[in-house]
Amino acid sequence: METTDTSRSTAHAKAPARGAASDRSDLAVSVHGLVKRYDDMLALDALDLEVHTGEIFGLLGPNGSGKTTAINCILGLLTYDSGEIRVLGEPMTDSSRDLRRRIGVVPQEVAVFKELTVYENIDYFCSLYVPDRERRAHLVEEAIEFVGLGNYRKFRPKKLSGGLLRRLNIACGIAHKPELIFFDEPTVAVDPQSRNAILEGIQRLNREGATIVYTSHYMEEVQQICDRILIMDHGRHLALGTVEELTGMVATGERITITAPDRTDAVLHKIAALPFVENVQDKGDELEIRCSRGDHNLMDILDVLQTEGIHPGHVTSQPPTLNDVFLALTGTALRDSGSTDEE
């Protein structure tokens, strides 16, 4: 997969507020009031979700938040108790064969045949949507090239690394050139290099015209590639917007880190007494300072150090993250809030 600029444009139209009427002509996915129960457990609690055509839409939440359940309901793989779902302008039914041809799915669990080669696996899954052999052969070659498996086309899955298996999983889901592609946790348990290749490939698919729905519990990934993000937990909608809009919802400001080995306890107390400082952690030679929102927090802190004759070394200022948003909404950090159970 080619290396690309990982910055995301926020030029897509802003989604309407929850419950507001919207023009559905530009919606690739429309979900309203979706309820799904497993006996006494409420897996989806009146979930609303709208994905605009042409965007990368992120579903962010801890394990067990309902992401996979929501996708399976949208795809018609699960029945649900109540709500309305439309995909590419149509309801998904058991007879929606033409509609299914326009959709690609890359599941969380690698779903390939162990006895088939890389080429044979991709060809099989593509054949479910493209019966013409000549056209399919061209599509399979494109998919192999796209995921960078050209040197492995005759390999069987057991000879592939975890990262290469994930790439094969992606190729099987996208070979038929779908308009709408669902990626469910595609980077679980892969190395950083494979993760970057997968994320760059998803961005390339989007540039080539595909609408993407991307689920993850890795906030860094959705922050990197998604145009809009829905944060959910316990099957409920918590917040929706661009990264900038979501981080703007909370009063949390930046996290400032300063290397100051010669600082004193008196300096520490003066910094902690600043009105915008929420917390100061002394980490040996380094101070980590959590702030509320302000226009010149960093300058005020540096002024204290200068007044006290302290010469800081390395200084960084990190803006609020999606984890800060989740923490503000739920009282629990995103990385700590999930269980190991599947959704």
Automatic annotation (TrEMBL):
Q: Which UniProt keywords apply?
A: ATP-binding, Nucleotide-binding, Transport
Any GO molecular function: ATP hydrolysis activity
InterPro entries linked to this entry? AAA+_ATPase (IPR003593), ABC_transporter-like_ATP-bd (IPR003439), DrrA1/2-like_C (IPR025302), P-loop_NTPase (IPR027417)
Name all ABC transporter domain ranges.
29-259
Segments passing through the bilayer: none
Q: Which PROSITE patterns match?
A: ABC_TRANSPORTER_2
The record's SMART domains line, in alphabetical order, gives: AAA
Cited PANTHER family: LINEARMYCIN RESISTANCE ATP-BINDING PROTEIN LNRL
Q: Report the protein name in the record.
A: ABC transporter ATP-binding protein
